[in-house]
Amino acid sequence: MIEIDRITKIYADTKAVDSVSMTVETGTITVIVGTSGSGKTTLLRMINRLEEPTSGEVRINGVPTMSVKPHILRRRIGYAIQGHGLFPHHTVARNIGAVPQLLKWSRAEINARVDELLALFSMEPKQFRNRYPAELSGGQQQRVGVARALASRPELLLMDEPFGALDPIIRNRAQEDLRRIQQKLGSTIMLVTHDMEEAILLGDRVAVMDGGKLVQHGTPAEIITRPATAFVANMVGDVERPLRLLSLIPLGEVVEPGAANGDALSTKASLRDALSACLWTGREAVPVENDGVVVGRVTLDTIRARAELHA
Amino acid sequence: MTLAANRIVAGQGVMAWNVADPVATWPGVAAVLLGLAFGLPARFARLRLCGAVLGLVGVLWVLMQGAPALLDQAGEYARVSPAMGFWFLFAIFSLLLVDALLAMAPGPLARGGLLAVVVGAMGAVLWSGLLSDLSILREYSARSDAFYREFLRHLGLAFGSLGAAAVIGFPVGILSHRRAGLRAAILPILSFLQTVPSLAMFGLMIPLLGWVGHTVPGAQAIGIAGIGFAPAFLALVLYSLLPVVGNTVAGLASAPPAAVEAARGMGMTQQQRLLRVELPLGLPIILTGLRIVLVQNIGLAVIAGLIGGGGFGTFVFQGLNQTATDLILLGALPTVILALASAIVMDILVELTRPTAKETA
Fold this sequence. Notes:
heterodimer; A: alpha/beta; B: three-stranded antiparallel sheet; 14 helices; about 0% strand
């Protein structure tokens, strides 16, 4: 559990971060979202003390971060940044093994961990281990960057706009990968982004920052349905709110018995996908399948009912 | 070729085909013509390379045959030197050689091997004594002891000052990299030093170190005086500081900011960041600085001859005083060769340390 307790950062006369408090449960993803200058990155960087807080404190599993030397603290916290920051003169394996090496793991342990992580990120270890970052595609570089941040099994992973430099298609894939890997490893992640869509897609909890203050902290559904301020509503985008909400609900949750025509959608697809399929193909309902077996259908009426629930 | 009655007076030109018995010279002349025929067309780099080598062998051959033959009946003090024709052809073939090699773009290791072959070939020709009748080598054999002494002196001045500048410059460069204030203070001072004309710098050292030698006890005992090795050395070190410090700062700053930030974020200490990230990534630029210093100091060390600092400059200035051109060349040619060879070696090192070079490996 990460407790952020009235943390404040003042530069000259401006309060970059103004008395922010929040709690992050172990094994969840918290996305901090805000416009540029909202203080979101400063907040993140105060957690691993790349910025020293002016006042307030951060506790990781009850232990204040100020009680250890900064570089020791940072070795326990994964850190992934926009543009990956890989060392261009080191191979993929050395890049991923950087923190374990700092922690003085044995060579065999490091090698095993590197291969394990490469496999986890769907990169064939034999093929990629000895390559240099410049020989990888942008998506691969980004995956190696995240793998490096996870290498020492940190108790917390901080990510600063990790997908910002990727093009949309690769970004989607990277987001899905992160979700999958986080669920598999049970990691605790704090991620900073300016993209509300990414926040809603990835976050178990979303924290909205504005002008150095934390204006709302809640589940994605809460953020969409009950925006605390006009700023949050604006971030969500009023027109798209129903669609955003539908994108949070998996078909598995609302599937009903019955038959429908046309191609089936997976139970993991969202109501937004179902709505899109209905509109595009002129159907009133779509079949829903689980592992190739049709388990029922979702109708346009159901979708409408769910969207209106919060109106 | 020129034939002169003694080492001072101007010589008389002799045509290549007249320097010796035609039977002895014709293979050389033929090789030169063939070399030109092969080398001048620009299409094929390999052909041009063969032509250049053939031509060089040709002009050397004429030189070897000509020198003893001309001296045969010319009297005891007569001197033979290569004339304009030789230097022209030599320059043309060298250019062809360089051009052909550039077109073939050998890797760093191949270039190192090539340099060794060229130096070895030059050494072999000189060692064999086939050219020892030439005037410049007459000058050499008259003072071979002095030549080696000044050669070592020259190396000591150039490499010693490089070493001293590195020992001082690296820490200063690293500190300046970390503190913008220090950087803003130091770099202008060093670039001011760089603008002091070299003769003036050597001149300034004389009263300065002379005063130190007189007033500081024990200074004279370790060789600090107004003239000699110490002031020359010090001046060279001062000249070297700007390239060393400047390139260290530039090299350290050349590491991608995201990589440095990531290194900090993963818990590397300042020391670890320097050794594992900034230095390895900046090494090519730092070595480029050392290359500049080395080539510059090998050249500048000649001027050290003026203030008794020793080195090849001794011969150059002796030669100037005696209007003995060959003595000047005895000082100048080894300096040029030394500077060229060092530049090539340093370039190879720079290329080997460039991280992108590994990608193609």
